Structures are given as structure tokens and as C-alpha cells.
Amino acid sequence: MFRLRKGILDNHTILSSTSKNTHLLEIQAKMPPEAHLQTLVDIFASLADPTRAKIIFALSQQPLCVGDLALLAGVSESAVSHQMRLLKDRRLVSAQRKGARVIYALAQQHLAALFREAEYTADHLVHQIPDHPYSLP
Question: Is residue 24 located within the same domain as residue 90?
Fold first, then answer.
């Protein structure tokens, strides 16, 4: 058993417990910093709402105004505006004024890729598709 100190494995404990555990030091060295992990958690929390998920999916297709997003998400424009404030605060979407309308877009295409990967995972779970080899970058 490893001693935990503020959520971090004690390197001495890993090394002294057995030489088999050196792989844990390698994994720990690759672990993102706490601030980075918190941002990751915030991104996933942003997607953890059906209305926001619909908005992110729609924006992954093309930039849209609040009215169009409201129609696609099946909610009021006020509800979409509320969600857009949260997504803007988390720097996941950007806004550009075009005349009297504000057009929203994904701030980064990485979010579209993340959503697509989550969609693939959901498809596998819903349709009980077995796992398959998948190469990571």
C-alpha cells in the first residue's frame, strides 16, 4: 500500500516498497499538473448537461446564433444565453457580433474532437460494441 501525501504518491515509498513499482514513478511524472487537471474537469463538467451537449454538437457543425441554437436544443433563447455565458466563461466558445446578432463558435476544434470521441464511446456503450485497438497520438 502506498502512502498518499496531498494526493501525491511518496516517491520514496514507491521506490522502497519494491522495484516493480518504478512504473508508478513514470506514470506520476507524466501526470498533468493540478491546475491542468482542474481545467480538464471543468471542460467535462461543461459537457455534463444535455442542453450544453446539444449546443456543443451544433457548434461543432458550424457557428450559429442564439435563436438557431435554441431551436436545435429545444429550449428558450434565454436558456441558451445562460448556457453560452457559462461556456464563454470557460473559454469553450467565442462570440462575434454581426449586425444585431451574435454568432457563437467553438473556441477550439479540440472541443469538437473531444465531443466526437465521447460520442463514439457512448455509441459503443449503448450498442454494446466491443472495444477495439485504438492508437493515441
Answer: no
Domain hosting 16: range is 4-31
* Under 8 Å between Cβ of 103 and 112: no
Q: What angle do CA 98, 101, 103 make, to 5 degrees?
A: 70
The dihedral over CA atoms of 68, 80, 64, 106, expressed in degrees to the nearest 10, equals: -150
Return the C-alpha cell found at 123.
Answer: 455509441
pLDDT tens by residue, 55-77: 999 999 999 999 999 999 999 99
Contacts 24+ apart (CB under 8 A), 106-109: 106/56, 106/59, 106/60
The answer on 103 and 55 residing in a single domain is: yes
Q: How far apart are CA 6 and CA 77, in angstroms?
A: 44
pLDDT digits (tens, 9 = 90+) for 20-51: 678 888 888 899 999 999 999 999 999 999 99
